[in-house]
Structure formats: structure tokens, C-alpha cells
Amino acid sequence: MKAKLLQLLEDLIFPPRCAACGKLLAVCTEKPLCAECQKIWAREMLSQCEKCFLPMHSCFCVPRNMQKQGIDAHVKMAPYGTESGHTVTARMLLGVKKQPDKRVFRFFAKELTTGVRAVLHTADRTREKEGLSIPSTVICWLPRNRSSVRRYGFDQAELLARALGRELGYPSLPLLKRIKDTAPQKELAANARAANMANAFQRSGKPVPMRVILVDDIVTTGAGMAEAARVLGACEIFAVSVAVTEKRKEK
Question: pLDDT tens digits for 187-234?
Fold first, then answer.
């Protein structure tokens, strides 16, 4: 009750708006989208994977470079869309890069939960058949560029990971440290992205003898996820992102 009253007070002072189009929303609403943008978002989630042809929210395909570093599945929700950012997915993600919105992170986490539970269930059944124990599960994130954290005061991947942890009931831990600021991946051709992300992260503490859910907001070629997985060295790793970008041609 107290939380609802605080949310009502906050909404009266700062009226909530649609995270995609900016239209005013009803107070105390959980969803960050207006009805029209919600319908568009639902269609974006049904976009087909080019590899398995399943709807994006049901696809667990993993890019080859991520597979090589031990990532067993990639849970995602929708394509990022055009570079101009005119999709609902892109607008939400662009918004939370500059201004944290609790509704958006809770929304993303709730939508991702079903896919994450599905890949964990499959992994558990496989381990049981092989007579292996089921490892402890933790959530971590790809740390944002340090310059961006200084500029905006937060890390959107961390906020997403912590929201997902609350939904799933797993601890969210800062297992990775950013030690090199990198150029924006979207500005680079695919063959330059791995070099851009090389040695960008450092493991915080000892090797991780457990299952890790590795979270980022957007995955392009998977170079960042692959580098983070290489550094972590966990016994099992599953990647999670809100969106994946379209393929880019080599320059």
C-alpha cells in the first residue's frame, strides 16, 4: 500500500508519459507504453529470426562468436530497427540510455522472464539427464562506458539486470569491470567490432564457478557479449538483451 501511495504521489508530480511517443498515461499504470505503441511493440516482438524463423521473443539463436566463448542461448525480444530509431523498441532504449525510467526496466524484465526461464529449464533437464548438479545462478551485466556513466549518472544495463534479478529471484552481481572505453559499436563494421571490444572488461574477483545470465540492452554482432563471456569463464552462460540490431555490411 505504501509503495502504491508513493507511486501515486510521484505520478501526480511527474505525470507519466509513453516511453515511445510521449503521450500522457494514466497515473499508477505499470506499463510504460500507450495503447497504440503497445500494439506496435507486440508486432515488433513477432518479427522473425533470420536463422530459425521463430518470432524474435521465442528465438534463442546465438551468434557464432558468442557460441565460441561458451554462451549457450541468447534471449531477446525484438529487433532494434532502423538506425533512425523510429521503432517503439528503439525509442524506449534510446530514452533509458539518457534518463532512467523504472517502468521501462520493469516492463523489459517482465517480458524477458519467460524466455530466460525457458532456457534455464532446458539447461536443467539436460544436466539432470547427464547426472550433473544444477549450478547456482547469478545475473550480471556488461558495464557501460565510463564516460557515459559520468555523463548520465547511471548504467542502463545494470538497471535492466537488477530488474530482471528481482523478477527471477536471482542475485545481481557486478562481476565485470569496464577498463576501456570503446567506440559505439553501431558506428563500426562487423569486422572491426571484435577489435573494438577486445580487453574492454576485467573480471571482478575470482573465476565464477556458477551459471551466469549476462545482460545488455542491445546486441549487434555479439562482440561485447563474447568478450565478457571470455573474461568471466563461468560454467554456463546465457545472454539476455532487449533487442538485436540488423546486420550491417562490411565497409
Answer: 677 778 888 899 999 998 777 778 999 999 999 889 999 999 999 988
pTM of the entire structure? Answer: 0.91
What whole-number distance in Å separates Cα of residue 183 and Cα of residue 185?
6
Is-contact 58 217, C-beta < 8 A? no
CA 51 centroid distance within chain: 20
Q: What is the pLDDT of residue 250?
A: 41
Question: Is residue 145 helix, strand or coil?
Answer: coil
Beta-sheet pairing, 176-178 with 201-203:
antiparallel
Q: Which of 49, 22, 27 is nearest to 37 (CA)?
A: 22
- Cβ contact 120:137 at 8 Å: yes
Q: Which residues neighbour 111 within 8 Å (Cβ) at sequence distance 6 or greater?
A: 45, 57, 77
How many CB atoms lie under 10 A from the CB of residue 217? Answer: 24
Nearest CA-CA partner of 216 in 154, 157, 164, 148: 157
